[in-house]
Each structure stands twice: as C-alpha cells, then as structure tokens.
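Researcher: Hi, I'm a grad student and pretty new to this. My advisor asked me to get structures for two proteins we've been looking at. I'm not sure of the right format, so I'll just paste the first sequence and hope you can take it from there.
Model: That works fine. Here's the first sequence with its structure tokens right after it:
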Amino acid sequence: MYMSQNGMYRFDEFVLNRRKRTLLRDGEPVALSPKAFEVLSFLVMNSGRVVGKEELLKAVWPESFVEEGNLTQQISGLRKSLKDRGSCIVTVPGRGYQFAAEVTEIHPDPPPAALAQGTMMVETIRERSSVIVEETTTSTPRQRALPLPRSRNLRWILLLLVAIVVTAATLVWKRTHQAPVSVYKIVLADFDNRSGEDVFDFLLRNALEIDLEQSPMLTTLSVAQTRHTLQQMARSPDERLTPAIAREVCERNASQAVLGGSVVKLGSSYVITLEASDCMSGKPMASLQTQAVGKDETLKALGTIASQMRRKLGESLRSVQGFDVPIDQSTTASFDALVAYSHGIQQPAADSIPYFQRAIQLDPNFAMAYEQLGVAYGNLADVPQAKKAFARAYELRQPTDAYEQFVITSRYYEIVQADLDLAAKNYELWARSYPQNRWLWGTLANTYTQMGHYPEAIAAGERGLSIDPNAPFAYVVLSRAYKRASQFDKAKAVCQQAIARKIDSWGIHSILFQIAVYERDEAAMARETDWDKSQATHNQTLDNAAFAAATMGQLKQAEELFQQAQEAGIAQETADYPFSIAADKSEAERLLGDLDHARGNAIKVPVDRDEISFQAALNAALTGDTAYAKRVIDEEKKAPATSTLVQKVEIPLLQSAIALHDHKPSLVPGLLEPAKVYELRDAYVFSLLGEAFLEMHRPEDAAAQYQKILANPGLDPVSPMYPLAHLGLARAQSMLGNTAQSRKEYEAFFALWDKADPTIPVLKQARAEYLRLSAPAP
C-alpha cells in the first residue's frame, strides 16, 4: 500500500507527519534523526509489503554510497525510539524489512492558505493593535523571526545596558563599515554527507549559514524564496538542494554562486570540503578543504574555511576580520547543544521547544537558543514565556557575533522593553552594517507603522520588498503602510503584486477589504469576505466584516457577525479571542450609542489582557464604568517605563476617557500631550480631543481634530469613528454659526449611513439635531 509523499499517518498511538517531519506518540514528540525519520516514513508509506534493503538505501540516500551496516544501525535506533512498539519493524531474512503495524492515512480538514516557508507574517485584528510579526513556516523553518506581540512587557528596565550595547554596536560599525559595495548573493546547497552519521545531514549546513550571516557582503537566498522557486520548478518545496537543483534555483533568482560542501569520515577524522561554483556557467570558483580531528572539532574547522571562502568570493580582509566570531565563541562551544538547536530550527514552533530547552540544558549560556525559544513561544502566543526567554538571551548576548547581537537586542527592545523609539534606532544601526538583511527592513517598517510614522514605514517597506520580492511579509508590511497613509491605489497595487505571485495571505486580503469598505465597493467587499471561508483566518475576516457593518450603522448585522467571529475563534482554540470580540463589540456599541451593552461587554474582559484590556477599558470609561478603567491603568503601570505605547499612548488615553466621563474636559489636552507624537497610529487621540473641545465650547479646535480623522481615512477604514467624524464636524460648525457647512456635514454623515438601522441612538440624535438646524428661526 503506497501512500502520499507529504501526508499524515497513524499507527497504534503514533502519528507521523511527513510535512512537518514529526513523529508524535500520544501527542508527545519522539526524537528522531533526519535519516531515521526518512527510513520510518518510507516503511510506513509502504506498509504491508517487504521493502528490499537496496530499495530502502536508494530512497533514503539517493545520491550517496552508504554501506548496509548504516541502514542496520538506523533500523536498530528506530526500534529503540519506538520502544515497546519497535517490533512493528520486522526483519525479513534475505529480503529486507516490513512495517507490520496497521497504518491509516489521515486526511485533515483543508488547512488555511499557507505562507511560504520562512516568511514573516503580520497578524493584525483590524490593524488597530500592535502587530505580531513572526516567521511563519509550512514545513521546516529556520526561525529567523521577530514576533512583535500585542501584549506588553516585563516590569523592569536596564537603561545602562541599553546605552552600552548601542554604543558598542556603533563602535563596531565605525571600525568595520566601508563604502557600500554590491552584495554577493549565494544559494546554499545541502551538504553531501558521506560520513555515515546522520547528524551531519543538517548540522553543517546550519553552521555554515550561521557563519555566513555575520558577513555584511554576502547574503544567502531566503528559505521562502527557495521554496517558492522550487514550486515554480514543479518540485516539492521541501526537496533536497543537490548542486544541480541549487544551480537552477540560483539562476532563476539572479544570484551569483552556489555554495555547497561534503563531509567524509576517515578513521576518527572528518574531511570537510566547501565548493563554490558560478550560477550561470557552472564553473568552479573556489574549493577549500580541511580536516577535523574528531567530531567536536568539525564546527571549528568548518568556520575556518568558511572565513577563507568569504575572502575568495570577494569580501575584503577588513570586513572578514571585523565580522568573524568563531561559532564556538559566538553561538555555543557544545557540539551536542548545537545539534539540539539545529533540530529545533527544523521544526514548527510547538515541536521546536523541547529541542531548544535541551540545547539550553546542555549549554546554559547558549544565547541564541534562548532567543529562538522566545520566537517559538511568541509564535504560539505565549508572550510571557517569550519575553522571559528574550530577556535571558539579552543577558547572555555579549559573546555572540555582531549579527546575533543585533537580533537579540532588537527583540529585547521591541518585545521586553517595548521601546519603539530605541528599537527603530537599533534597526537603523543594524541596516548600516547589514543593508541586505532579508527581514530587517520589514520589521523596521512595521515599527514605524506602529508609531504612526508612515513616510518612514513606506521607505523601509519598499527597501525590504526590493531585497526579497518573494517574501509575503514584505507585501503585507508595505501595503499596510500605504493604506495607513491613505495611499489606497498604491496599497492595492502592492496587494495585487502579491496575489499575482501567489504569495498572498490574510493580511493582504484584509487590507483590500478595508479599502473596499472605504470606497463602498460592495463586490470587492464580498470577494474579500469569501476569500478564506473554511480557513483558520476566517474568524478575523468576520471580525473585519462586523466592524464594516458597524461603520455603516448596521448594528444588528454587526452583532451577528461578531457572534460568528467568536464561534469561529473558539473553533480555532484561540484562548483570548472571546475577550477580543467582547472588546470589539463593546467599541462598536459605544460608538453607535448602545451604551449599556457596550459597558457590559467591556467589563467581561480581564484587566490583564494587555491591549484587549486597554480597548475594553476605554469603552468602559466612556460608558460610565471608570472603576474598571482605573484597574486596567493600575495593571498597565506595571509595564516598563520605556514601554512606548503603554506609557505614552494607552495610559493617557484611558486617563482622558475618565476625565471626559467626569466632565473634566479641560484636562484632556494636557493628558494627551505625550501621545501627540504617535497620534497618527489610529484615530483615538483625534476623537477624544474633538469630544473634549466640543464640551469646552472650543469649536474651532474640535473641528480641526475631526478634520484630521477625515483627512486620514486609512488609519482605520472599518471604524465608525470615520463617519462619526462628519457628525462631530457638523456639531462644531453649528457651534461656530456656520449653518450651511454644518448642514453639509450632517448630510455627508447621513449619506454614509444610508443603510443604517433606523433605531440606532446616534442616528436618531443626529436626525433631531439636523431638523433643528434646518428649522426656520422663530
């Protein structure tokens, strides 16, 4: 019985997942080497028949000569790994092996549209919140990711260490940076492992990539782009990169060279070879060989010839010397710890955690293992554990090389400290030394977007897209910045480019949906709403659609859609999603005048759910429950003093909402002064200032705030705050005695709410005001 190459199979209490390359027993991972996994997979997919030894050798080692004894060792190791179920692998004397357990192929529900391996994904709920940027994988990722969580940070700060690391990084750059030169683009082929030891199947390539990452002048093709190219070649995105396949990948991406290698065991020594060849001609460019005395010396030996290869490929001696920390000093001196780490970065987030924990157990000072553990936790939305790991990585960062220090420091500033200003400065410094880094520019653009600094975000996003045009995150980040800047045509053009390349994601279609709402394009709205039906992201699409209904004054439909979104979120087992929906529902109800229900939904949210709690507290304060808002403020004050959004935006907004409820509008402008630097990240500052100025009988100042909302519709096209800005402006113009202009703004509001529920309190009040404005003077 032969089964599909990338499926999932169940036998006894085990589940083997070919796509994720995992074996679970009762939900717990079973550690297998890559070759052991391939042997087991081939036997499972051919269960019910005898598989000859020669057939098995060719399937698992297709391009290498391997002695039969190696296969015997793999079978023996597999039986030990399967423990009491090891007898399911039966030896048929003189013929081969047979998998005797009953195997069932699992056909899961259709998965969500997958992003390319190794890409960053921007996850946003209506794009009001801080975003999560993570490297999302569909198979075997190398987790070079920067998750920027919705939540806040630990309660402490190390300002002195921050100053020291920035100063040190600056000195490194000044010492090593030269005039810009063209960056050499390389495709890494998989190592030809002729040692007979499975550990080298992936370890040496991973170590080589770590070594090369230090170089500002060399860049390796991203995993996402490699997978995308393999699919264009009608190959599996997980296919092994032999030199021939790597060369075609190289040519298709206009790279310059293929760099591959081999390892051969001679007695107790290992001979390691690195070979570079020209992509276009295939001619050899450089070849280096070294010998390591013992397994523990292989990484040091590889590092030595990797540095020599950088010189042969044209990097200056000064650059190599300035960015060349041996892997045993920068990453880990423990061979076994690096093996566990390398296993981890080959796995999806949930499966990677035990490997990173094992690496840390073997080397407690392994900073990058802590860093990647934080990435895994962040991708699983376990933000407290992510922050704890990132903080520890920062403490241990000093021995690491310059590149890894930038990675660790960036995560610390952005996630642990939540200091967006310092994070942006660190990214800018990083960009000077590593201008071709494949995800640096995207995270910099995202940071600027969170700050509401859209020209800078667009510039960084455009740079990122030019470096890696096959990276899905680059399109999301850039189109999002254009949308926030209300440059809708450019945002749509970027989204269409992603769709044309078939690397679109929920983020792309969310942006298109929001623009369609602003443009009142019902066909486009329907198309984008239907885009991900039956997929895991549809709960977010429904949340968008609910807010779109509220933006049009259709509260009843909005509530139905919020309910559908909540049910879909629960089905996806997203723990905080019901609270997020409660906060969203509360906001829609508050803005449309249903204050009692708004207050009731707001206080359903626990006070420690970070930005979800902030949103709920804002609604609670403006609808009468200031006690809840004060409890959330107390919780937020536990965040570090450096936390940009908490200390300078969220707490001032909550204090202003309380002041408005307490009829103290004169306090609001002063309270919101710290937030003005970031006022364009959403419409909250403008909205609260407008309301305060109206209550203070300062109509000119109120009008200016509402005009800012109307001039920046891209901040949140699916928020009722946009149409309600016409209503606020109408009231300000009426107070100024500009009856004609006031009437015009009322009519603009009614036009946007032409299909609104007629019983909505805000609409009924607006109609009454309009009638009084239009009535003849007595």
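Researcher: Oh nice, that was easy. Here's the second one.
Model: And its structure:
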Amino acid sequence: MRRRSLIGLAIGLTLTCCLAGTSGALADDASTCAKASGDERIDACTRLILSNKPGSGGNLAWAYRNRGLGWRSKGDDDRAIADYNEAIKIDPKLALAYLNRGWSWHLKHDDDRAIADFTISIKLDPKIALAYEDRAVAYFAKRDYDRALSDSNDATRLDPNYVDPYIGRGNIYRNKRDYDRAMSEYNEALKRNPNSTAAYIGRGNINDDRRDYDRAIADYSDAIRLDPKYALAYANRGNVYNTKKDFDRALSDYNDAIRLDPNSAPPYNGRGNIYYARKDPGRALSDYNDAIRLDPNFAIAYRNRGNVYRDRQDLDRAMADFNDAIRLDPNYSAAYNSRGIVFYARKDFDRALADYNDAIRIDPKNAVAIYNRGSYYFDKQDFDRALADFNEAIRIDPQYAAAYNNRGRLYARRKDYDRAMADYDESIRLDPKDPWSRNNRGLIYRDKQDYGRALSDFDDAIGLDPKNAKAIANRGIAYQGKGDADRAVADLNEALRLDPTLGYARTALANIKPESTSSPTSPASISQPSSTQANANANVLPSPSLRRVALIISNSNYAAYGVLPNPKHDGELIASVLKGVGFQSVVVKSDLTRDQMLKALQEFAALADNADWSVVYYSGHGVAYNGINYMIPVDAKLAADRDIDIEAVDVGKFSSVMAGSSKLRLIVLDMCRSNPFVKQMRRTIASRGIGRGLAPPPEDDAGEYTAFAARDGQEALDGDGNNSPFAEALAKRLQMPNVDVRRVFDYVRDDVLKVTNRQQQPFTYGSLPPVDFFFVQR
C-alpha cells in the first residue's frame, strides 16, 4: 500500500521511452506495455521483446523492465527479477530497473540485495525520491532505524508532498516508542493525502499503543471505509477488539482479513489468539501453524504456538518454539519470559531467572516477567526481592490479579494478615474465577478460627476447580478444627486421592482419632444415589458414582423463515431419555436468540465444571462457513455471508464450555438440514466457503467426542413423523445397557442408514481414552 504515490512517475517515464521509434500495432503494444498490468501488460511487452532486433537498445531494456512489473503485479517475483536482470544487462544505467529489482528482493525478504539495488539506483539518478524511501523500507526491515530515518528524510527533501516517507518515519518513531513524533508524522501524511489508508493504519497503531482503543478502532474503520479490501486494516482492528475482549467482532475481522488475503500470516495468528483465549487449543494451534507456514520468520506466532504446547505439557516442543522466537527476534521480551516459565517447570531455576532478567532488560515494563521473577524469589524465600517485584508488577499493571494474590501470600508468610487479606480481596475483585485467591484467604480465616468464612472460601475455590487437591485438604482441616470429623476425613481422603504427595493432608488425617467419626467407612461427604436417579426400567440403573449433566437446545421458530417442526420434539425426546438413564441435571432450552444461546452456554459451563460427563445436544438450523460450523439462532437474518460470524454461534464454544468435565465431553449436532438461509444469502466474496451440510470439526482434545446427524458435506433428513430419523435412533440406542458410547453411535449410524435408504449417514469424530462409557449399566 505504501508504493502508490510515485507509480505515476514510473509509468510516465516508461511510456515515453517505450514509444520512441514505434508505430501502428507496435505503438499500441508499447502503450499497453507501459500502462497496463498483469497478463495484458506481460503479453504486450512480450510482443515488443520478440519484435525488437539486436541492437535496438533502450526500447528493449524498457520492455523487459515493464514486463517485470507485470510479473510483480501477479506476485511472481522470480520472473520479475529475471526480466529486470535482462533489462540491466541491456542497459546497465537504467536506474528504475535496479529500483524495481530491489523491491522484488525486499518482498522475497532478501533486504541485503534490495539495499544494494536501491543504492545503485540512487547513484544513477539521485533525484528519485522513491528509491530513497524504498531503501528506507529495507533498512527498517533490518531494524536499522537510523539509516531508514535518514533515507526517509532525503525522500521528503526531494519531494515534500510525497506521503510515504511521512508514514515511514511514523513507523520508525513508533518502533522507537516515540509515540508523539510518530503521531505527528502520520497526521502530516493525512494532511497531504486525506485518503491515505496506510496513514490511518499507522495512526490507529499509535492509538492502540496508547490504549486509546476507541480511537484506534475509528482509524482502522476509516482505512476500511477508504479501501474495503484492505486486509491489514481488518487484522489490526481485530487485534483491538481482541484486547477489548470483544471476541466475536475480533473473530469476524480476522476472518475478513484472511478472506481478503489468505497468504497474510498476522490474521491467522490473531484468530489463533481468539481460540486460545476461548480455551480452544486445537483451533489455536492450527492457526498458529498456518501463520508460521506463511511466514517462517514470524516470531510472535512461534511464541504463541509455544504457549499452546506448554499448556499441554509438551515442554520440548514449547522450548523449541520459544528458542525460534528468540532467534528470529533477539529483543522479544515476551519470548524470554515464556521460555523462562519452561525452564522453571523443568526445575532449571538459574536459566529461568536469566530469561526473566533478559525479558525485563529488554522491556522494563513487562509486568508478567517481573511477576514471574518475583515468584522465583518467593520460592527461594528471598522475600525482600519478591516483594519489590510484586510491587513493581502492580505499579505497572494495577489490574494484575495474580500479583496481588502472590503479594498477599508473602504478607501472610510475614504474618501481616491485614495486608494479606486486603491483597486477596483485591485479587478476587479483579479475577472472581481464580480459585487460589479464595483458597489463600480461607487459610487466613481458618488460622483466625473463623471457620464459617474459611469454609465458604474453600467451597468457592473447589467450585471453581473441583480437582484442587489443596483446597479440598484445606477444607478438611477446617472441618477438623470445627469438630466435624466425618467431613474432615472425607475431604482429606479425596485430597490424597487427587494428589498422594500432599504430606500435610496425610498428617492431618492421621491426627483424627477413629472414635471421633460416625462411620469410618462411609464418610458423610460421599454422595449416595437418590431414589429419583433410578431409571424407569427397574432392571437398568445408571452408575451412581458419576455426575452427568446435559444441555439440550432446540430451535424451531425462526423469525426469518418460519417453523422448522422437528427440533423441538427432538430436543424433548432426547431430554426425556437422558433424564431416564440417570443424568442428574438436564437443562432444556428452545427457540433461543443469539444472546439467549450465549447465556445458556455460560450457565451450563458452571454445571459442566463440576461434572464427570457433560453432553450437549443441538437441533435446528446450522451452517458451515470458512471451515467453521455455526448454530443459527431464531433471530438471525443472515442477509450476507459476512453476518454469520456476528449473528450465529460458533459450535466451537461447546468445547470451552465443557472443558471442565473430567471424563467425557459429548457434542451431538442434529443441524445438517437443508438450509433456507444459504439460498438467499448474499455472497460478499465468491471464494467464501459456505458448504453443503457441516464441515469436519477441528481435532478434538482427548475426552471430547462429536456426533453429526449427517457426516460432513451431507444434509440430514427430517423424516415423516414428529422426530427426525437421527433423534429416534439416538433415543432408542442411548437406553441400551452396557454399551459403550462409541458403539451406541455405531448402532445409530446403521439405524439411520437403513431407515433413510442410505441417504443419510451419521458420523462421529474425536478420541476417547481406552475405557468404556456406558449411558446405562446393569
């Protein structure tokens, strides 16, 4: 986008030279060779080249040079360079051929060759401002900001109204963190050209850096208004929406950026960040892989992919990615911090500290690295240094909940309980979903023998993280202090089951005398199956030791397209069966708007977090778009394909909602029906993928299983009765005793194939551990 300003100059020079000594058809070819682009230009220049006799000199050199511009416009820099070489061979003093070849070298990331060509171009013609500015761009790519600044200044000296040098200087000052000068340069560019999209992008970047997010969005939106096909503007606006945690809008912008420029790496990285924040590591990893494939020098994407590997405890791959990020950008503070975390997990504490120090040296305002170094000092019991780091992290980022929590731990170690309590309170206010701040505050209440408040905090911590062995043990000790030995024993046994290394829990359990418990073999906290959990079939009972929950959503009454009869009946049928086989909680929702669907998912997440099994069943309209499956709420209009991201609900949300379930996460989608929305939907770009049926889901995490009523690319049938063939088969097969879930769906597949005369084939995706999952056990 930055090379438009002087293209008119280059074409004018080219046209004059190529027309010399030509007439008739050749004159027409010369004009086309000079003015056109792409194949038209290439064909005209080729005819000129073939018609030229040896010794025709300048005209032939210009024809090769112009054909090189044609190849460049098609993105074929290798052929462009070959033609520029021929032009230079014929006329070694053709300055613009060196200039154009330099730009192709720059686009191939060979900036040393680019700079060499720009330098020759300047030597041959010191008055071409574009040559100075292009060399500035190459120096900028090599992070040689002083030389880049000097060249941009020379470009402005030669042509004060040339916009690109102002934008270039703005970019340089931004990278030097001189935001005032950067903003001034971008404003100067806009004075000279109010329609400069690159200047709006630059100014938006500064507003983003200054955390003035609304102005940043306004600037990026102006760039999009001026050029609706400007992929970078969508990507940058998506980054701001991401920062504001407006993930739906961010995702929509990243999808648009990828649609407009599928070969640009940053939008894939940004979309990966959305999936990572939504706890969808499979999709995040896929996008980071694409970003790295498109730009193997993209340090940020390596660091982000490393974070996914680290979360999966794949520390070798994580370390390799962090090393690559640092190799590509030795001044990448966040990469040093991430690598330090891996060193710490490997108990290589000296290297961890070295990386934290490097991260802070590069960016003294990296609050996360300062916090991590403080945690290192805390673990080493160097409390003075730890406190200094926690204080500094909070000064830099007053919203940093974890820093308050760890500073509270430090104050508690020093028995400064008032300050500790204040820090825990602030941490909980900033991050209500963090179990550790509640656990730690509960410890203070317990030490004060305020057992009621202590138990309340431990209950909350366990509710947020049901497998938090320390919180369960701490609650057991609180029960012990309160004199409730039965509950104390139950909690301490459960904590040791989850983490046998908890020595303090073992000690506390040993100190409880057997005679103080009412039933040593049946602790009060172990739940027993209630009579309401029994199956209607007296010979078949669900497993009483599992907590199983389900969410049923059925959308029938669509505002834009009337009633889809079966989903509501299908949802009621499946809900009835799940209740009958012993699910403790079955939430049934029907005819939901988008906002209501999101609220239902949010509410179900709390149930799923405390469950062994979670099942979601959706029946209604759906659509596959750009490889992602969406559920369509009843208030959707979907006038254009770009509305899908905003008006529909990504099926991938189910994965994050159910992530807390410990054993089985089952997603059942009965939404592959013939879709009236697709038939009337306006396509903004022909290449956008809206497929028939659904798209195959991304690779599931272990323990997640997805079932489609019809395999990807196929539509499902509603059938002739009140229920779809798939729902009828599923309801029947769910009640089979001692049949693993995988075999259940094998039976469902065979049933549906038979009843639909093989027109519809249900399909399953995902991986489960090598154990049986029975809906019903005898």
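Researcher: Is there anything I should tell my advisor about the second?
Model: You could mention this: Confidence is low (pLDDT under 50) at residues 1-23, 519-543, 685-689.
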